[in-house]
Amino acid sequence: MAAVWSGALSFGLVAMPVQLVSATESHTIRFNQLQRGTSDRVRNKRVNERTGDEVPFEEIVKAYDTGEDYVVVEPEELEELAPGRSKALEITGFVDLDKVEPIFFDKTYYLAPKGKEYAKVYSLLHEALSRSQKAGIATFVMRNREYLVVVKAEGDILALHTLHWADEVRDPHRQVEALPERAELAEKEVQTAVQLVEALSMDWDPHEYHDTYQERVLELIEAKRTGATVEKGEPPPKTTKVIDLMAALQASVETAKSRRKHVGAEEEAPRRGRPPTQIKEAAEKRRARTAKKAEEKPPKPSELKEMSKTELYQRASDANIPGRSSMSRDELIKALSGKGGRRKAEVS
After folding, report:
1. What is the set of domains in the chain, with CATH numbers?
2. Closest to 327 (Cα-Cα) out of 239, 241, 233
3. Is 138 helix (H, G, I), strand (E, B) or coil?
4. What is the pTM of this model?
5. Selection from 332, 327, 339 nearest residue 304 by Cα
6. Rounded to 5°, angle at Cα 7 from 3 and 12
7. How many other β-carbons are positioned within 10 Å of the β-carbon of residue 171?
8. Mean pLDDT lowest for which of 55-59, 97-101, 161-165, 264-268?
9. Looking at residue 34, what DSSP letter applies?
10. Of 54, 49, 52, 95, nearest in space to 70 by CA
């Protein structure tokens, strides 16, 4: 993948040439615009709002609206403002990782040395950040915009996270009109809520999650193409009434505990303090055990009835049940319990 920026990273009197590569990518399904009833594409044009004429891209310039008139600014004029800073990434200090609040994080890039001869400097900074559990704070200019960033060790690489500026983070007390005041809570309610959190605690494995909405959109597209049908999703859950809060909490705790009664001791252990390799091994064992159970013995209907449709769909995916994408909740339960057979109309 091509680098989006290259320059020199420095900390103290140590410097090395580096390059940034995007660490993430979007898998959003993109639609074309058509005129209804035709296959004619609708395209956007750059039009002079006074004359109505289309304007060639090379004739378009950037201008700032002062309120009275426009001030045109050329790209080279912006570059001349900070010719050095657009190629410099200087770490001015180091902070504890937990001091940077999550709300400030914006986008992530991988930071790589620009040659093998700089591997030692790169490894030195990576090791120092890993041992100290700190992150470097820096600013740099990219594409005519200044960024506040943190540089931190992640796995065996250095990552750069762009941050929002402090004045870009909105005050929730000004933005949320209905922000409630601290409500009085009964200690029993708090203890039961904590029990529910503990009962639903799990090891974090991002690979176990996937974009089910995107899958459903693709299934809808395929169904419309072939003339099949796709069942609508379930409606949102009903709001819990305040007078039923305690009952809902207790029922949730019992349900969560019943789901976990067959879970091994390694999955009951808290995540905190466990090394990443142990967490990964536990997740792999859990997936293997789930697949084995799906092959050998289907879950009991009583267990399946306690699950949400999302959980049922995940089990159906693990068991490779055909037609699962268009099944209702009851049909998923029947298929997983071995009573529903296999649907003939498969939409996947």
Report:
1. 5-25+80-168 (2.40.290.10)
2. 233
3. strand
4. 0.62
5. 332
6. 135
7. 7
8. 264-268
9. B
10. 49
